[in-house]
Amino acid sequence: MASVLACIVALLCFKRSKASPTASPRACVELEVPVSIDTTAIKWLQPRVDSNVDAVDWVANATTWTSPNMTESMIGTITVRQTFKINGQLCVPPKGSKRSDILHLATHGGGFDKRYWDPEIKTKEYSYVEAALAEGYSVFTYDRIGTGKSDKPDAYDIVQLNVQREILRKLTSLARSGKLVSASKNLSGIRQTDNRLNNYKPSKIVHVGHSLGSILSIGLIQNYPTESDGVIATGFLHTNVQLGGLNVATWGFEFARQNNPILFKDHGSGYCVQATPSNVQLQFLKKGTFEPALLDYAWKVRQPVAVSEFKSLLTAFGPDGAKFKGPVHMVIGENDYGNCAGDCKGTYDLDMIKTQIYPAAKDVGVLIQPGTGHGLALSKNATAGYRVSFDFLHKSGL
């Protein structure tokens, strides 16, 4: 019954909607954040990728049923003590906004950088940043290592999910301390003009994710359940019986540097990228529910994925999710091809999620967003989905 209600709610929000009557004027600062971590990564048994031929071979190796499974592929451990340069953007709403002390810390998924949350075309219709600011929230988006303007370290031994999770944890800690701006290199020159940014210190942090970014946000609360006040996990669904459809063979990978030697000149061995716009469409969008301009945009801003990010997907999760006390909202496109083999209706058990995975959570909800693919922020009903998530948070006092 609960899952049916979720679908009904989604259907009511199918048409494109605005997050508020007027969009918020932006007050943002671009930062280069130094993030130091001390953790353990895994040495994986896998082919190297230094050409398009290698990329196809890597995909075949990863999907052949007789290839070593995840446990069998672990051949050692690696100590990672390193400081990474993380590019991020902090935005605050206008003065007097009643939720400005609540920070949405957003982590993008594979194939994108932080621009996923804030498309540079038709911003009012698609931007999560714009919608959250209009709702009165503050927002921090960032490029995960290996993407955008952040560091691009070794794709085999460093760019792994547990490393990315620890970076998210450190960013969370910096934000809570009020030192996110002061500890960073200011790339916008705005430090002297807006103390709301310079001295920003949130009272609550909501972790927002898309796809791989949702896995990192969920991994954070499952390993450190007191370090988040709430989660919006988009492109992700617990207990999904069709999750086997998430297969690297659907990405259409090529070696990033060979695909575009100029665009991906900073990406070395082991970084793969989608080969064509059609590959992007298959993975992220559903015919009839996206504008061609948004597919063009997704292709323009596409980002490589490190091979060990796929190998290490399960290493982000942890044993303490049952201790998390905040609200958890999962949003999945009805026609998410990678997650649900094209149809997410009836693929999950909300009661099980509530009683077995997050029994202490303040609230748990699922939104099946109608007629939408994996790239929810690039679909025509993007802002309708944001509206449902915001209302969900409001019920929990966020």
UniProtKB/TrEMBL annotation:
Pfam families recorded: Abhydrolase_6
InterPro entries (alphabetical): AB_hydrolase_1 (IPR000073), AB_hydrolase_fold (IPR029058)
Record-linked SUPFAM superfamilies: alpha/beta-Hydrolases
Gene3D superfamilies in the cross-refs: alpha/beta hydrolase
Start and end residues of each AB hydrolase-1 domain: 108-378
Keywords, comma-separated and alphabetical: Signal
Source superkingdom: Eukaryota
Leader sequence residues: 1-19
Name of the protein: AB hydrolase-1 domain-containing protein
